[in-house]
Design brief:
This protein has ten helices and eleven strands. The protein is of the alpha/beta class and 293 residues long. The N and C termini lie far apart (67 Å).
């Protein structure tokens, strides 16, 4: 080929961008607060999945270099990643709700910024949802590992089922199901050390979005750290003598029956029920508190 033809071919390629990847059906929302160090691992685990539509990272008013990390990741993955920032630090629930409102995928997933998906998750979850149109969501098993990557909670532990059934991160749900619930509860009660918004959301799914599917394979890797909700849960419980169950060793008054946390959860559930059914009569325990949203 003459030199002028080779040069013409080179110049024709200038300014061209990589073709956009085929859009999938799943939107992933990642709330992030002062966790830029681990965010790249979480984003990479999404990019390794088939059927990804978009990644939405919501910066919950970070005060470290997290905004710069998000900007760098978005520049590298601009075709599949978008970001937002909350007006004030509102906790994971508010950040997830903001990201979900931006989502365009048929299905929604929520990933914590310090965790990651296991390859094959989206494919398996989509197969279950496509095969069962009646399912509003599917839940999978989880891997709980410490800083040394050794398990901190095994499936043989009776507390394991409680841990995975109260997490929103091992779920893939139809976006219409999320919209039906109206999102995670944003009450200030859940923003304290007790947490509870994940438990409330999981209870809402069980009450208002049945049936759901369950995949007996670990597709979510939770990287546990000191001071986490999981560590507080494990520290506050003890196995029964037969090893088949567990009991709480001690509860704060606000954690016990009729306590502030139970009232806040019931308020959230009553708020959803009354919105879905105008004739619904809320339980007395759910009255007098601020709305769940």
């Amino acid at each position: 080929m003459p030199i002028w033809q080779r040069l013409a071919a080179i110049f024709q390629g200038f300014g061209k961008r990589e073709p956009a990847p085929a859009r999938g059906r799943i939107s992933v929302v990642i709330p992030c607060h002062n966790d830029g160090l681990r965010l790249e691992r979480a984003v990479a685990s999404c990019l390794n999945q088939a059927e990804l539509n978009q990644i939405i990272v919501v910066d919950d008013c970070s005060t470290d270099d997290t905004p710069a990390v998000i900007s760098q990741l978005q520049c590298r993955h601009h075709l599949l990643m978008m970001s937002a920032r909350t007006a004030r630090n509102g906790g994971p629930a508010a950040a997830r709700n903001k990201g979900a409102a931006m989502a365009t995928g048929e299905f929604l997933c929520f990933l914590d910024s310090d965790d990651e998906y296991v390859p094959g998750y989206f494919r398996a979850a989509l197969a279950a949802l496509d095969g069962h149109p009646e399912f509003s969501a599917v839940r999978t098993d989880m891997l709980f590992v410490g800083p040394d990557n050794k398990p901190v909670l095994n499936a043989s532990d009776p507390r394991y089922l409680s841990a995975i059934s109260s997490s929103p991160c091992n779920l893939m749900l139809r976006r219409t199901s999320f919209q039906r619930l109206g999102g995670f509860p944003e009450s200030a009660v859940f923003r304290g050390p007790l947490g509870g918004e994940d438990v409330a959301f999981s209870k809402a799914l069980e009450q208002f979005c049945q049936p759901m599917g369950y995949i007996r394979q670990s597709f979510y890797r939770c990287h546990d750290r000191p001071g986490s909700h999981l560590q507080r849960f494990l520290g506050s419980t003890a196995l029964t003598p037969d090893g088949q169950g567990f009991v709480f060793k001690a509860l704060r008054p606000e954690q016990g029956p009729g306590g502030m946390l139970e009232i806040a959860i019931n308020t959230y559930l009553n708020h959803i029920a009354s919105r879905l059914d105008p004739d619904y009569q809320p339980s007395p325990q759910g009255q007098g508190m601020e709305p769940g949203r």
